[in-house]
């Protein structure tokens, strides 16, 4: 610092202000560079070095696997500090077999009694490299299995010796035997320890290649209560994808995320039990039902009307792969006026206009809307009704759309009042599987009638389609920002709207 003081005292008075400021900045940078090179970092207390290493691994690096390895390779002192810090090793990903599995078990031992975040993948997601995030939320259930059922059970037995310390458990399997082994061992080993730390549980069974989602029939399975029917005190996130549980004997309560997928009628909860689960989750923030929900009950005119379960904190709602009648029945089971993110997928094969009439004014605070493969009456009265549905969501800002009829884009304009905007706050669109010419024309029309888009994200396939026709990319770029979005990626605008 004495050198900097000399610069300020002796040099600054003899220079012009701009030149003096430049020299001062240069002197500071040179000093700091030399200081960092000679700084004796290993003289710091162990606790401070440990905190620094945690920042390096969890906050500063996109590849925590490599970061942890490199920290232990730097020097003997850092390796000793890292190995003694159990919180550096508690995020563990088991994939396949071989050296990476051996490494995962080494980290399992190093974590000791720290809360564990574990993921087990029974598929081949990029076997040659580690992902940017160890516990990625993007699951590819169509990949060929890389872990057999014979490998799964001994792995779980060893893993569940620390069941009481597991905080997050995500398991992806591809066969019935592995999935049932998970549920069986949880039901056997869970009650004695009480799973006190388990906050998030996901079990995904693949097998999509051999199942028809429209006529889903399972083998004769005897469902068991989830975790032996005990109360998981900390569980807030539950996702069951293509796996059975005994809904009547399972304790499902106090969830913030409830995600069920691919359940046949034979293994679905009754309507009364489903409503009981919703009522026992007053803090529920995300509800996802993809081809799974309560058993359909036809409401006769003589029966008592259903009083919807109020979900005041629900912000994200996903409904997919249902018939018209069932979807209307499902939406009658609950009320969620403050939904911010609404997803409607695979509502096709019939005219779903009656469903959209039911949803009109039901979700007035939606800002993110996803419409994948939806079908409705495209006659003038039907299009007018769909426009009223959009009008009931005046805050809509972000639209994801794919596999819809070209007429879908027409409902954003009023035939009798073209100058009155529909969804005036819509500024970001995420497009997939759309005719490029329709997208270009729709963007031009939005601009011409005073509701211009700010940004359009397109899939890689759609980007190729736009590039195949001369002038389409240039036309879009002249109206808004155009960006290519990789599969499964989340945009900054989406993250901002879901806060």
In short:
By secondary structure, the chain is of the alpha/beta class.
Structural overview:
With 499 residues, the chain is α/β, with parallel strands linked by helices. It contains 16 helices and 16 strands. The protein has helices at residues 2-11, 17-38, 46-59, 64-74, 76-83, 99-110, 149-159, 176-193, 271-279, 324-331, 353-359, 380-391, 436-448, 460-468, 472-477, 492-497, and strands at 91-95, 116-121, 166-173, 200-205, 237-241, 257-261, 286-290, 309-310, 316-320, 334-335, 341-347, 368-374, 398-402, 428-432, 455-458, 481-484. Strands 1-2-3-4-5-6-7-9-11-12-13-14-15-16 form a 14-stranded parallel sheet. Helix 4 crosses helix 5, helix 10 runs parallel beside helix 11 and helix 11 (353-359) runs parallel beside helix 12 (380-391). The chain is globular. It comes from Mycena albidolilacea. InterPro entries: F-box-like_dom_sf, F-box_dom, LRR_dom_sf. Pfam families: F-box-like.
Key descriptive features of the protein:
16 strands, 499 residues, LRR_dom_sf, two-stranded parallel ribbon, 16 helices, Leucine-rich repeat, LRR (right-handed beta-alpha superhelix), single chain, alpha/beta, globular
Beta percentage is: 15-25%
Oligomer: single chain
Structural class by SSE content: alpha/beta
Number of helical runs? 16
Strand order of the largest sheet: 1-2-3-4-5-6-7-9-11-12-13-14-15-16
Radius of gyration, in angstroms, nearest whole number: 28 Å
Q: How far apart, in Å, are the first and last alpha carbons?
A: 44 Å
Which geometry do the CA atoms define? globular
| CATH fold naming of the domain at 340-499 | Leucine-rich repeat, LRR (right-handed beta-alpha superhelix)
Report the CATH architecture of the domain at 340-499.
Alpha-Beta Horseshoe
Runs in which pLDDT lies below 50 for 5 or more consecutive residues are 1-16, 124-129, 131-138, 141-145
Task: Tell me the major beta sheet.
Answer: 14 strands, parallel
- CATH class designation of the domain at 340-499: Alpha Beta
């Amino acid at each position: 610092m004495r050198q900097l003081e000399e610069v300020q005292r002796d040099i600054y008075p003899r220079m012009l202000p701009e030149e003096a400021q430049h020299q001062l900045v240069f002197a500071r940078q040179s000093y700091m560079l030399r200081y960092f090179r000679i700084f004796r970092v290993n003289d710091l207390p162990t606790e401070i070095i440990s905190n620094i290493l945690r920042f390096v691994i969890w906050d500063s690096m996109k590849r925590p696997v490599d970061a942890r390895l490199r920290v232990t390779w730097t020097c003997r002192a850092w390796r000793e500090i890292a190995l003694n810090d159990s919180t550096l090793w508690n995020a563990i990903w088991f994939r396949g077999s071989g050296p990476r599995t051996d490494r995962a078990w080494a980290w399992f031992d190093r974590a000791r009694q720290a809360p564990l975040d574990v993921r087990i993948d029974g598929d081949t997601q990029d076997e040659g490299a580690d992902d940017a995030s160890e516990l990625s939320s993007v699951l590819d259930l169509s990949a060929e299995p890389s872990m057999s059922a014979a490998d799964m059970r001994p792995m779980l037995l060893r893993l569940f010796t620390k069941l009481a310390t597991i905080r997050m458990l995500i398991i992806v399997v591809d066969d019935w035997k592995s999935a049932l082994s998970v549920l069986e061992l949880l039901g056997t080993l869970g009650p004695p320890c009480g799973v006190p730390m388990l906050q998030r549980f996901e079990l995904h069974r693949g097998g999509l290649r051999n199942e028809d989602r429209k006529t889903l029939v399972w083998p004769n399975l005897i469902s068991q209560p989830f975790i032996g029917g005990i109360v998981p005190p900390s569980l807030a996130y539950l996702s069951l994808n293509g796996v059975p549980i005994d809904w009547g004997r399972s304790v499902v309560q106090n969830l913030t995320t409830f995600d069920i997928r691919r359940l046949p009628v034979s293994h679905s909860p009754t309507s009364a039990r489903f409503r009981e689960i919703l009522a026992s989750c007053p803090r529920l923030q995300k509800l996802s039902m993809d081809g799974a929900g309560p058993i359909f009950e036809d409401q006769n005119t003589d029966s008592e009307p259903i009083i919807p379960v109020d979900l005041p904190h629900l912000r994200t709602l996903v409904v997919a792969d249902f018939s018209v009648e069932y979807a209307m029945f499902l939406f009658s089971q609950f009320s969620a006026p403050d939904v911010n993110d609404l997803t409607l997928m695979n509502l096709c094969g019939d005219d779903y206009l009656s469903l959209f009439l039911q949803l009109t004014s039901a979700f007035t605070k939606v800002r993110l809307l996803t419409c994948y493969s939806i079908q409705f009456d495209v006659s003038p009265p039907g299009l007018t009704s769909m426009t009223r549905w959009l009008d009931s969501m005046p805050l809509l800002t972000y639209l994801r759309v794919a596999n819809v009829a070209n007429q879908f884009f027409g409902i954003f304009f009023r035939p009798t009042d073209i100058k009155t905007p529909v969804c005036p706050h819509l500024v970001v669109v995420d497009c997939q599987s759309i005719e490029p010419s329709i997208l270009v024309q729709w963007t031009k029309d939005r601009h011409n009638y005073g509701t211009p888009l700010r940004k359009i994200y397109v899939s890689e396939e759609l980007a190729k389609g736009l590039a195949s026709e001369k002038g389409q990319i240039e036309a879009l770029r002249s109206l808004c920002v155009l960006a290519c979005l990789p599969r499964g990626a989340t945009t900054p605008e989406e993250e901002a709207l879901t806060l």
